[in-house]
Amino acid sequence: MTIRLWGRPTSARTQKVLLALAELGLDYELILASGTMGAGGHVAKGNQPFGIVDTPEYRAINPNGTIPTIDIDGFVLWESNAIVQYLGMTYDAAKFYASDGKIFASASRWMLWENNELISPMHNYVKHTIRFPAAQRDPDIVTAAREALIAAWRIVDDQLARTSHIADDAWTLGDIPMTIRAHRWFLLDVPAPPFPNLERYYKSVAARPSFAAIADPAMHLAG
Ligand SMILES: N[C@@H](CCC(=O)N[C@@H](CS)C(=O)NCC(=O)O)C(=O)O
Q1: How far is the CA of 14 from the centre of ligand 1 (A)?
Q2: What is the pTM (predicted TM-score) of this model?
Q3: 3-state secondary structure the chain
Q4: Among 6, 67, 83, which residue has the most ligand 1 atoms within 8 Å of its CB, making it the best to mutate?
């Protein structure tokens, strides 16, 4: 099997796929691609992006010009959560959702929720504290992002008081986005009240061998 993945290590959506591939123990080739970031950092600071995403060849496989995109023996897929779901369904349904439709639905619900509630405020927080040059940073956006994140983490913390992992007591594919968000959150060290269940969860998911795929702080804090 040949797997090619277009993305960049600093992209949390690319990281979802990296973490899923690590859980499955699958080899892949990572092709660095981005219109907004490159080896030196964000384009807003004058850095060169990795590129590729605006070429006709890339747009033919992903018309959005975003990352990640995966090609598995000619089967091409974009949309990070769909990629993780496909990988889990195809290569280890027992591990990813106990081969159970209800657990799959519960995990998918948290993947959609992460996309809707966590990504945008966390992305704004990172852009306006790290990635943008100081003159382009907006403290009001940082405050709004912090408040939205605290409200969202309260929901996660409450859930983690009920179940050991986000969708079930056992680990599921729903823990893939949540692991990345929790790691980024604790690395960012955002001023916030304590979330004891989230902290316990973070220690547990960070102890999984697959975590090495997304552990490097530079993947989260690169400017
Ligand atoms: N809903 C899409 C969103 C894809 C997306 O916006 N990816 C970001 C990176 S996390 C991106 O392409 N950023 C612009 C770039 O790096 O060129 C997904 O989950 O795959």
Answers
A1: 8
A2: 0.97
A3: CCEEEEECCCCHHHHHHHHHHHHHCCCCEEEECECCEECCEEHHHCCCCCECCCCHHHHHHCCCCCCCEEEECCEEEECHHHHHHHHHHHHCHHHHHCCCHHHHHHHHHHHHHHHHHHHHHHHHHHHHHHHCCHHHCCHHHHHHHHHHHHHHHHHHHHHHHHCCCCCCCCCCCCHHHHHHHHHHHHHHCCCCCCCHHHHHHHHHHHCCHHHHHCCCCHHHHCC
A4: 67
Task: Render pLDDT for 76-134 as a digit per residue (tens, 0 to 9).
Answer: 999 999 999 999 999 999 999 999 999 999 999 999 999 999 999 999 999 999 999 99
Determine the CATH number of domain 3-91: 3.40.30.10
127 CA → ligand 1 middle, Å: 14
Residue 37 beta carbon below 6 angstroms from any ligand 1 atom: yes
Q: What would the pLDDT profile of 50-69 be if each residue is shown by its tens digit?
A: 999 999 999 999 999 999 99
Q: Which CATH number fits domain 98-213: 1.20.1050.10, 2.30.30.30, 3.30.70.920, 3.30.70.100?
A: 1.20.1050.10
Ligand 1 lined by 80 (C-beta under 6 Å)? yes
Q: Where are the domains of the chain?
A: 3-91, 98-213
